[in-house]
Write a structure and sequence with these properties.
The structure is a homodimer of 375-residue chains. Chain A is α/β, with parallel strands linked by helices and 375 residues long. Chain A is 35% helix and 26% strand. In chain A, strand 5, helix 4 and strand 6 form a beta-alpha-beta unit. Chains A and B meet through helix 5, strand 12 and helix 11 of A and helix 5, strand 12 and helix 11 of B.
Chain lengths: 375, 375
C-alpha cells in the first residue's frame, strides 16, 4: 500500500514514523507547504505529483482546515484513490458529499482519527450501529478542557493559571477558544451523531457552553456537594430529530467520568440491547492520532470498503424534551432564574429541571455566568 | 449467511433473537440436547444435520464445555465451515490447534464473545497488535466478582450476604467458585495474553487469588485509607516470557477502576506508542454476549479472514521481577510475613514490595488469609 501524504505536521510526521519499518504500508510522497529537509527525497509542493502517481493508491489528508483540503480530497477520490483523513472540520461539513463521491468511484473514505484521537471510537460506533440501535452517545471528547477541569479539581487554582500551565505543556493552544468554548467537541459530536443516527446535523446550531467562566469558587462548591464538573457532550434520539448539546456537567464523584484524569477522553454510547459501552484513551497527540490514521489504512488494505454510515438525512435539532437541574452562578437578579431556583449554594443557585436549550441560550446572553447541568 | 447454531441456552437464544428481522444472517438449524418447542421447525439432535448441510456456511458454537464442543468445532472446520464460538474453555485450551486447522481449510475462526461478553475487546486487541506493541493488559474481567466487591464497598455487609444476593439476582451461579476464585478471569486472561503476545500460556499455572476470604472489616480498612479493592487481572511482557497473575488489588479511590460499578467490566491494554486504552461495558449477559457472536458473523460476512494472531509460541510464565506492597490479613504469626511488614492497619499488615508469585503462593497455603496487592 503506497500512501500520498498531504501535510507533514504533528499527525503527518506520526504517520510517517508508523510506516517506517513496515513492509505493507509506505509513504511514497508528501505534499508540503515549506521545505522539510528530513524528507526532501519524497516531498513535493505540487499536489499533481500525488494525484497523478498511479502507484499511490491511498491519499492521507492530515493538513487540516477546509481549503484546500476539500479540493484535494475531492480530486483524490475523483482520481480513484482511497482517502483517509483526520480532518474534523472537513468531515463534519462534507461527510455526505464525499461519501457519495467515494461510493460512486468505488473507493474507501475513512476518518477514524477525526474523533477521539487514538481511541478506536468511530470504528466501534460503526460496528455497533450495524447490529443494535444507538440511543445516545457522548462523554468527554476534548483533552484540553478535561485537563483544565481535572487540574482545578486537584488544587485550588483559578482557570487562568491552569490554562497558562496547559499552554506551557503544549496541551492547549495559544488561542484556546476552540477547546475551552466547546467548538472542537461540537465538531466531534456532529460527526459521531451523524454516523450513529444516519443524520446530517447543522454543526453550528448545536447549543454549546464551555468552561471559560468557571472559577475556583465554583469548583469548591462542586467539591463540597460531592460533585465533579466535566465538560460533556450529548446526542440522543428525540421525538423530532436529534437532541444534541455540550455543557459543563456535574457528575457524582464516584462516576466513571469523574475518574478521567488529565487530557484523557472517555466516549460512550448507549445502545438499545447492548447497554452502555465506553472507550477510554488519549484523545489527541501525535502517535495516538496517527495510529487511527494507520488503522484506517490497514482496514482499507484488508478490503474494508464500508462507510461509517450509508444514510445521511438532514435532521433537525430537537431539545424540546431535554430538561434537568442546573447549577447557576450569576451575579445579578433575573426573574426567570429566580422562578426556577430551588436551593442556594455559596454564591450560586440550584434550579429545578430547566430546559437545556433555554438554559444554554440564557447563559450565553449573560457573559461571566457559569452554568453546569446536574446529571 | 446461514448459521448452524450449536446450543440454545442463554447466548444461543440471544443469537437467534438478534437474527430475527435481519435479512443478511439467519439461523438455519439448531443443535439441541432437549426439545425446544419454540424452535421445533429448525432444531435437531443430530450434528450431521448441520455439518452435512451445504447451505450452512458458518457454525456458531455456544454450547459451552470442552466436549463435545471441541469435536464439533473441529468437524465443522474440517467440513469447510467458518466457526464462531463464545466458548472460553475451548479457546483457552485449543486456540492454536483450531486456528491452524481453520487456516489450512481457508475458513474463519472467531471468538470475540469468549472474553468480555459484549465488550469489543478481542477485536480491538487484535487491531492494536497489528500496529503497536502491547506491553501489558488486564483489568476488571469478571462481572460477578466486581458486583460483590462493589456491593461490599457501598454498604457494610459481609461476603456471604452479598454473594447470596448476587445469586438471587442471577449475577452469580449456585456454585460461584469459578467467579469468586478467579478461574473465569484466568481463562479470559490466558486468551487475551495469548493473542496480545503471540503466546501459548499454561492457563492453570497462572497465579490466581480470588475474593472468597474478603471481609467487611477488610473493606472498612481499605475505605479508611482511601483505597478501593477490585479483583484485577494482569499480563505483561517479562524478561523470560510473560508475567501474568490475578489478585485483589487496592486502587486509589479516584482511579478509573474504582469507578466501575455493579457487574460491569473495564479491560485495558497499554501499548508502547498508543499508551493506555480501556473498554467498558457489560462483560456477560444474553444480548451483550450474543452481540459479539453476531459481530463475528458480520465480520466474516464482510470478508474478515484474519485470525486474532497468527503466532502461538509456548511461553513460560515469569514472575521474577514482579513485586509490589501488599495488604495482608493473616490470623497468626509468620516469620516471612513479619520480615516484610512495614506498617500495621487494624488487624492487618502492609508489606514492603514483595514478589507477587511468592505472595500468592504463600497466601494460598494459609486458607482464610486475605491479600491485596497495592498498585
Amino acid at each position: 500500500m503506497q500512501l500520498g501524504l498531504l501535510g507533514y505536521g504533528v499527525v503527518g510526521g506520526g504517520v510517517h514514523q508508523w510506516c517506517l519499518g513496515r513492509g505493507d504500508v509506505a509513504v511514497k510522497r508528501v505534499l508540503v507547504r515549506s521545505d522539510k529537509p528530513e524528507i526532501a527525497a519524497i516531498s513535493t509542493r505540487d499536489i499533481q505529483d500525488i494525484l497523478g502517481d498511479d502507484a499511490i493508491d491511498t491519499v492521507v489528508e492530515v493538513m487540516g482546515g477546509i481549503h484546500p483540503a476539500y479540493e484535494y480530497v475531492k480530486a483524490a477520490l475523483e482520481a480513484g484513490k482511497n482517502v483517509v483523513t483526520a480532518n474534523k472540520a472537513l468531515i463534519a461539513a462534507y461527510y455526505r458529499e464525499l461519501t457519495a463521491l467515494a461510493a460512486e468511484k468505488g473507493v474507501a473514505l475513512r476518518c477514524t482519527a477525526a474523533v477521539g484521537g487514538g481511541i478506536p471510537w468511530l470504528v466501534n460506533l460503526e460496528r455497533v450501529a450495524r447490529l443494535d440501535e444507538i440511543e445516545s452517545l457522548g462523554g468527554i471528547m476534548n483533552g484540553t478542557s478535561n485537563y483544565i477541569m481535572d487540574a482545578m479539581h486537584r488544587s485550588d487554582v483559578d482557570f487562568a493559571a491552569v490554562l497558562q500551565k496547559a499552554q506551557a505543556l503544549g496541551y492547549a493552544e495559544a488561542d484556546p477558544s476552540a477547546d475551552i468554548d466547546g467548538d472542537d467537541i461540537r465538531r466531534k459530536l456532529t460527526i459521531s451523531a451523524n454516523i450513529a443516527f444516519g443524520a446530517v446535523l447543522e454543526e453550528e446550531a448545536i447549543p454549546t457552553f464551555g468552561i471559560r467562566y468557571v472559577t475556583a469558587k465554583d469548583i469548591a462548591n462542586f467539591r463540597a456537594h460531592g460533585f465533579v464538573c466535566k465538560l460533556l457532550a450529548y446526542a440522543g434520539t428525540a421525538e423530532n430529530g436529534v437532541c444534541a448539546y455540550i455543557e459543563p456537567t456535574l457528575v457524582d464523584a464516584h462516576d466513571l467520568e469523574a475518574a478521567v484524569p488529565a487530557n484523557f477522553n472517555l466516549i460512550t454510547y448507549e445502545a438499545a440491547q447492548l447497554g452502555r459501552q465506553s472507550f477510554y484513551g488519549q484523545g489527541a497527540g501525535r502517535f495516538p492520532t496517527a495510529a487511527n490514521v494507520m488503522q484506517d489504512c490497514l482496514d482499507i488494505q484488508n478490503g474494508q470498503r464500508r462507510f461509517y454510515t450509508e444514510r445521511a438525512v438532514p435532521t433537525t435539532l430537537d431539545g424540546t424534551n431535554e430538561a434537568h437541574p442546573y447549577y447557576v452562578r450569576y451575579e445579578g437578579a433575573d426573574p426567570w432564574l429566580d422562578s426556577l431556583t430551588v436551593e442556594r449554594w455559596d454564591g450560586a443557585v440550584i434550579t429545578a429541571a430547566a430546559n437545556t436549550y433555554d438554559m444554554i441560550a440564557w447563559a450565553k446572553s449573560h457573559p461571566g455566568t457559569f452554568i453546569a447541568g446536574i446529571r
